[in-house]
Amino acid sequence: MTSKIIGVGNYIPSQTITNLFFDKHHFLDENGQSLKQDNTTIANKLREITGIEERRYAQKDQVTSDLGFYAAQAAIENSGIDPETLDYIIFAHNFGDVRFGAIQSDTVPSLASRIKHHLKIKNNFCVAYDVLFGCPGWIEGTIQANAFIKSGIAKRCLIVGAETLSRVVDIHDRDSMIYSDGAGAVILEISNDEKGIKSHLSASFTLKEKDYLYFGKSYNADNCPDIRFIKMDGRKIYEFALLNVPGAMKKCFDDSGYSINQLNKIIIHQANEKMDEAIVKRFYQLYDATVPENIMPMVIHKLGNSSVATIPSLLTMILKGELPEHRIQEGDIVLFASVGAGMNVNAIVYQF
C-alpha cells in the first residue's frame, strides 16, 4: 500500500516583475556600502548565474493563504473529489500571511485552517495544520501525508505549498531579486496498485549549517534594526547543496529499487539554475552516467524562486501540458528533490 497523486493545481500570480523593476534600487552590501556595479550589471549577473529573467508577485490585496486556496481549489477540481472527504490539509509555507506594506507575519489561525474555512469544509475530522521546513516544506508535507495514509489513519490528503516572498525581502539586498510568489497543491490518495510514492528521504543539517538562511536586519542602517528580512549566504548554500543533495537523491533513488536508466524526470526545487544543473550532474556521476537530455524541466527563468511552491506548481504545469517539451506519461519514474533553510534536504521517488 502506498499513496498516489489524483489531482494537481497551482496559482501563478498575474503580476510579472522583470529585472528592469530593480533598475532604481539602491543595493548595498552587508556593511551598508553601495555595490560597485551598476544595477544593469547586477541584473545581468543574476540572470547568468540563476537563470532568472522574470518573477511573479502577488497582487497587493492577496496574502499567502489566498494563493494557497486558489491552488487547492484547482487541485480539488482536477481530482474531481468532494472536499468533505479530505482527512488532512497540510500547508507548507515559511512566513505566514504578510499583508502588503506590513511588517508582521500572521499565522494564527494556521494557514491550513484558513484554506479549510475558504473551502467551506464542514467535516471537523479533516485536520488542518502547517509545516515550516524551508523550501523543502511541500515535499515534507507530502511525505507526512503518505505516512498518514500508509498507517491507515487517512485515505485522502491535500498538500499545499505557497509563499509570498516578495513581502519579506530587503530591497537593499541584491538577493531580493531571486524571490517570487506562487502556490501549488496536490491531492494524495491511498493506492493499492503499482503507482505512487516508492521511496522518500529527509535530513536536517543543523550543527554548522543552521544559519545559511536566516532572518536578518536590512543592509540599510537607516532602517529600523528590529525589522527582519530573509537573508542568505549564497556561497555556503551552493557548496552545501553540491556536497549533500546528490548523495541524498541517490540514496532515495536506490531505496526505490529502480535503475538509473529507468528515471524519466527530475523535478527539483528551483532557486538557482546553475546550482540545479550541477546537482543533477553530480547525481548522475555517482552512477558513472551522463545526464540525459530533457531530464530536468526548468521554469525559474520566468517564475523565479517561490520556495515551497516551485515543485508542485511545476508538476502541475507539466501534467496540464503547459510545457510542451516536457511530458510525464503513465508508468514514468520521477525523482523530486529539494534543499533549503534548516538546512533541510529531502526527496521522493514516484511512479506515475
Automatic annotation (TrEMBL):
Residues 129-202 form the Beta-ketoacyl-[acyl-carrier-protein] synthase III N-terminal domain. GO terms for biological process: fatty acid biosynthetic process; secondary metabolite biosynthetic process. Residues 254-351 form the Beta-ketoacyl-[acyl-carrier-protein] synthase III C-terminal domain. InterPro entries: ACP_syn_III_C (IPR013747), ACP_syn_III_N (IPR013751), Thiolase-like (IPR016039). GO terms for molecular function: 3-oxoacyl-[acyl-carrier-protein] synthase activity. It comes from the Bacteria. Keywords: Acyltransferase, Transferase. The keyword Transmembrane does not apply. Transmembrane segments: none annotated. Pfam families: ACP_syn_III, ACP_syn_III_C. PANTHER family: 3-OXOACYL-[ACYL-CARRIER-PROTEIN] SYNTHASE 3 (PTHR34069), ACYL-COA:ACYL-COA ALKYLTRANSFERASE (PTHR34069:SF3). This is 3-oxoacyl-ACP synthase. It comes from Empedobacter brevis NBRC 14943 = ATCC 43319. The gene is fabH1.
